[in-house]
Amino acid sequence: MAKSTKPKIVNISNKQAYFHYAIETTYVAGVVLLGTEVKSIREGKVSFNDSFCLFDKGELWVRGLYIAAYRLGTTNNHIAVYDRKLLLHKKELKKIQTILKEKGLTVIPLRVFINDRGLVKIEIGIAKGKKLYDKRETIKQRDNDKDLKRYLKM
Length: 154
Hints:
The protein is of the alpha+beta class. It has one domain: Small protein B (Small Protein B, Chain: A), CATH 2.40.280. The strands form 2 sheets. Strands 1-8-9-2-7-5-4 form a 7-stranded antiparallel beta sheet. A two-stranded antiparallel sheet has the order 3-6. It is globular. The model has no long low-confidence stretch (mean pLDDT 86).
């Protein structure tokens, strides 16, 4: 019997981004990767610690995104942390650049996923940093939601 080649669902989120930033707009971008990087992403070996996006010569790059080395990779294995190019339309890039000129806004990666066609995509968000009191409000709201769910289960 042949094995069923059902694609594995990969959806890795940057949970800390939603805690530290208020997300205003999101975009879905393609990313330039090597073969071993794609295999490592399919295994879920991605970390968003200290990752952010920046513009260089009109192109958008993600910096600090950690993709672990593929465990079955040979000498052709990739470097775990380096700048990776994001693929967006020129209109979207120009729009993001004009928005970023506002004070206090940044572009951060929110999620890495594989779409229906098997391509790795990164969801990026234009975000504004939260103040300490905003973070406390988020914690308070999360605790209230947990209490409400607990109460409704009874």
